[in-house]
Design goal:
The chain has ten helices and no strands. Helix 5 packs parallel to helix 7, helix 7 packs parallel to helix 9 and helix 9 packs across helix 10.
Length: 292
């Protein structure tokens, strides 16, 4: 491979480290932004039902979004300086501790940065620095954010799943990914409907909800990016790995209250594996000799 390709992939990897730093903000703040919005909507509804009585105080709180306030230590509130926000390097230089209170910094932060950088490097090396490489890099960043958010909160925000779905359809229509538009549209529809049917079948049979609507939308997005042919190997891999992890957590008494494991991270893992090795390889690895 030409040296230019390696230099280009390295530049993509460095960009991925920066994007990974931003993903850490998204992973932490987006669920809290959603909760604040829900609380605000409930307060506004309660105020509208109060009639002539004085309305509740709906004064806006301190701005809280993906840009404000600036990053700070969650233990002491120390506002991070620019040189304390350099991906990976700042974590190593600080020894994994806050410079003010010496509280430990989660290893997840550099891990997310390294994962994003590695995936961007791979996309740059395999697809180049054009529209195709950028599309798949964005795909990886969105999946990483959703995996960690779902694992922490069991939420798959529409603000991530739906743009990823539409981006897959648009990338197919523009020819940026090697999935014909008809296969992308069929994959999106089949991905959503398949898990929707499983959801309602399980609910009618048990009276319980086995998964959330976010899983339908994420699977639909994967169908848009890989086509309907990839749905079976993707769901097989996610289900098998998810079941194995669930069994391990159960025997280790690490299951959450209610005994559930979020399904989104395993769909994400299947999607990233399909990008790296191809859906056919995933299918052969799971089904073995039964796979065509």
């Amino acid at each position: 491979m030409a040296p230019e390709a390696w230099w280009g992939a390295s530049a993509a990897g460095l960009l991925g480290l920066l994007i990974g730093s931003f993903l850490n903000v998204v992973i932490y703040r987006l669920p809290r932004m959603m909760e604040r919005q829900w609380e605000q909507e409930v307060a506004e509804y309660a105020a509208s039902r109060a009639g002539p009585e004085p309305a509740a105080d709906l004064a806006p709180a301190e701005p809280f979004n993906l840009m404000l306030p600036r990053s700070r230590c969650q233990s002491c509130g120390h506002q991070l300086r620019w040189y304390e926000n350099i991906p990976v390097l700042s974590y190593l230089a600080l020894g994994g501790k806050c410079s003010a209170c010496r509280a430990g910094i989660s290893l997840r932060y550099p891990l997310v940065e390294l994962l994003t950088g590695g995936l961007f490097f791979y996309c740059g090396l395999r697809f180049g620095l054009g529209a195709t490489g950028a599309a798949w890099a964005m795909f990886c960043a969105a999946l990483l954010a959703m995996a960690f958010i779902d694992w922490d909160t069991t939420l798959l925000p529409d603000s991530l799943t739906l743009p990823l779905l539409w981006a897959g359809l648009l990338a197919s229509a523009a020819g940026w990914i090697q999935v014909p538009l008809v296969h992308a549209v069929t994959g999106a529809a089949a991905g959503y409907l398949s898990l929707w049917l499983v959801y309602w079948g399980f609910k009618l049979a048990t009276g319980k909800e086995g998964m959330g609507y976010g899983d339908f939308k994420l699977f639909a997005a994967l169908g848009a990016w890989f086509g309907w042919q990839a749905l079976v190997p993707l769901i097989l891999m996610a289900s098998v790995v998810g079941a194995c992890v669930g069994i391990v957590l159960k025997f280790a008494s690490r299951l959450r209250p209610g005994g559930y494991v979020p399904f989104g991270p395993f769909l994400v893992g299947a999607g990233l594996t399909a990008l790296l090795v191809g859906p056919d390889t995933v299918q052969r690895a799971i089904l073995g000799p039964l796979s065509p």
